[in-house]
Amino acid sequence: MFKISARNQFPGTVVAVKEGAVNGVVTIEIAKGVVIKADITMESIRDLGLTEGKKATAIVKATNVFFALGTDRLPMSARNQFAGKVVSVKEGAVNGHVVLETADGLRFSGSITNEAIEELGLAEGTEAMAVVKATDVLVGVEE
Asked: Which domain holds residue 41?
């Protein structure tokens, strides 16, 4: 793990790199059979030495985690969708923090408005999806 403010840090192994002209998509296995995709620049892919088999950490700020009810994949452009159950909800003055845990034990922490928490009925035990756009996933490696 890195000592940074981002709440969501998922160490894993690069299993694929799809190169493009400017950006590429890096696929990191963060649990057995569970992957997260990061859309980052080709310059970053080269600078970080991201190739298949390389250890890397996917990093996502809590403000970039969205939630949806249910556990079925949603027909949307966001590729990273993780089904699980809400294990914690803490409301603040305006925003709250929701933590979803997958069957694999991965925890996704998201910061969303209290209004969204209430409208979706998010509470401990609610089945939901944590959704993250590939462009919101940062990648880090140990030097």
From this structure: 8-61+134-140
Amino acid at 52: E
For residue 3, is it within any domain?
no
Whether residue 122 sits in one domain with residue 70: yes
User: 111-118: long-range contacts (C-beta < 8 A, 24 or more apart)?
Assistant: 111/62, 111/63, 111/65, 112/66, 112/67, 116/67, 117/89, 117/91
Give pTM, 2 decimals. 0.96
Q: What percent of the chain has pLDDT over 90?
A: 97
**What confidence tens digit (pLDDT) does each residue in 88-107 have?**
999 999 999 999 999 999 99
- Measured in degrees and rounded to the nearest 5, phi and psi for residue 114 equal -60, -35
